[in-house]
Write a structure and sequence with these properties.
Layout (H helix, E strand, L loop, with lengths): L2 H25 L4 H10 L7 E7 L4 H13 L6 E5 L8 H8 L7 E3 L2 E8 L2 E14 L5 E7 L10 E7 L2 H17 L7 E6 L6 E6 L15 H14 L1 H6 L6 E6 L6 H11 L4 E5 L7 H10 L3 E5 L17 H12 L6 E7 L2 H10 L6 E4 L5 H11 L6 H10 L5 H18 L8 H12 L4 H6 L6
Parallel strand pairs: 8-11, 10-13, 10-14, 11-12, 12-13
Antiparallel strand pairs: 1-7, 2-3, 2-5, 4-5, 5-6, 6-7, 8-9
Helix pairs in contact: 3-5, 9-10, 12-13, 12-14, 14-15
Family: Belongs to the AAA ATPase family.
InterPro entries: 26S_Proteasome_ATPase (IPR050221), AAA+_ATPase (IPR003593), ATPase_AAA_core (IPR003959), P-loop_NTPase (IPR027417)
Protein name: ATPase
Length: 462
């Protein structure tokens, strides 16, 4: 056989195998899953397009709300799921292609759900793998898929998949879902804190209850609380008028002072005074997610981003020529938020000296720095009255105030707790401690073996 005949035979055999494969393929029964989708879309699977949008894990509840709102305007719709091994690591359009002629055993199954938080004490069920038949804004048929995280397959975040015969129809539906999702964002007006999961270091968001505090519960030097509230809340109240006059809204507040003097307590007061304002709290290792937090704050404005103990990520230049990379990531996030955003960055620190140089070399990030000092005698008496429930005789207060010079609000809070415990050990009936109980608790806390306790509560070095 010469080379020409060999090539002809090879081509004939190749065509024979292709024809046989086509005959076998066509003879296979079409899966119920593929039939349902193609029947709704009136289009062969090979001609379908899929438009996908991914979101962070913590946006799953909001995405579910967006899809639910979209479906609500287009009549009732029933979700259906997909069964089959390996479905978690494949896109829905690929699953449909593999199941078209039964090459992979993917069929209609139950919808997968998970429960996720929508507030400090509220949850909803979200679809983690499911499909629903509906129509695009232009009336053409589409199938919407919702997928949750599949971390074991390397898939983080949640996503929506819109499958249609037309890319334009799928894109329009996806855009409308996202618009409704942002309108009904479950995080708007909430107090949120970033954390880290044990799996792959993924960022998490937790909802916290909003504090309830009155100005009489925040003991600061005269005028300090009013200045802080005017800077944070006052600008927000006049946001439209300020913008109309060409003034920026973004602001930065630095609360500095020794540990235990009330910086965090002051922040909690601001939260209580601004209901409906989104608050994002960053502390410790979660600060690495500051860019996500800043983007969230801008999207959910008016908002406050609280960065607690920022000195822990600020290294003096004597330790690093460039300073702290994480600190400058924070500064970059503050810059990128935009001057027109109604967003306040509130930084707290026990070591303003570590921040001053970095802030001075990049001015404009903080426009108000307020010291929260150790309480003077009048403030110490006020703290004792506050935590003691207003039942302590003034003469006894004077003796306690004299012996607690330099002590902080945290110290007095612990002092009153110990006094209550002392009274309960003697008699569970009284609803308040006596002066004897307070004196006993103070003697214990001032004893030499509690020097570290005093330091941890913000007492000055001895």
């Amino acid at each position: 056989m010469d080379l020409h005949d060999a090539n002809a035979l090879a081509r004939a055999l190749q065509q024979l195998f292709q024809d046989a494969h086509h005959v076998i393929d066509e003879s296979r029964p079409v899966s119920e899953l593929a039939s349902r989708v193609t029947g709704h879309l009136s289009c062969a699977i090979k001609d379908l397009v899929c438009v996908t949008q991914s979101f962070q894990n913590w946006e799953h509840a909001s995405l579910q709300r967006g899809v639910d709102a979209y479906l609500a305007t287009r009549g009732a719709a029933s979700w259906f799921g997909v069964s089959g091994q390996g479905r978690g690591h494949s896109d829905t359009i690929d699953i449909l292609g593999m199941s078209r002629r039964g090459f992979e055993h993917f069929e209609i199954g139950a919808v997968d759900y998970a429960t996720t938080a929508t507030g400090p004490d509220q949850t909803i069920d979200v679809v983690t793998f499911g499909l629903v038949e509906t129509v695009a804004p232009d009336g053409s048929p589409i199938v919407i898929g919702l997928r949750g995280p599949a971390e074991m397959f390397g898939r983080e975040g949640c996503r929506v998949e819109v499958i249609a015969a037309s890319r334009a129809s799928a894109t329009a539906a996806r855009e409308e879902i996202e618009r409704l999702m942002r309108r009904d964002d479950v995080m708007r007006g909430q107090i949120l804190t970033f954390g880290v999961s044990e799996h792959r270091g993924n960022s998490l968001v937790t909802f916290l209850p909003r504090p309830v505090l009155g100005p009489d519960e925040v003991i600061l030097p005269e005028g300090v609380l009013e200045t802080v509230e005017r800077h944070v809340a006052g600008i927000g109240r006049h946001a439209e008028a300020l913008l109309a006059r060409g003034q920026h809204l973004k602001r930065g507040l630095l609360l500095h002072g020794p540990p235990g003097t009330g910086k965090t307590h002051t922040v909690r007061y601001l939260m209580s005074r601004m209901p409906g304002v989104t608050v994002v709290i960053m502390t410790g290792t979660a600060l690495r997610a500051i860019s996500d937090a800043a983007a969230m704050a801008r999207r959910l404005q008016p908002a406050i981003v609280v960065v607690e103990d920022v000195d822990l990520v600020a290294h003096a230049r004597r330790y690093s020529e460039e300073g702290s990379p994480l600190l400058f990531t924070l500064f970059d996030a503050m810059d990128g938020i935009g001057a027109d955003a109604d967003v306040t960055f509130v930084l707290t620190t026990n070591r303003a000296d570590l921040l001053e140089e970095a802030l001075a070399t990049r001015p404009g990030r903080v426009d108000l720095a307020v010291e929260v000092p150790r309480p003077d005698a009048a403030r110490r008496a006020a703290l004792l009255r506050l935590y003691g429930g207003g039942h302590l005789p003034e003469a006894d207060l004077e003796r306690l105030v004299t012996r607690t010079e330099g002590m902080t609000a945290s110290f007095f809070k612990e002092l009153l707790r110990r006094a209550v415990l002392e009274s309960l050990r003697e008699d569970p009936a009284p609803d308040r401690p006596s002066m004897e109980h307070l004196t006993a608790a103070l003697e214990e806390m001032l004893h030499g073996h509690e020097a570290l306790t005093r330091s941890l509560l913000g007492a000055p070095p001895e």
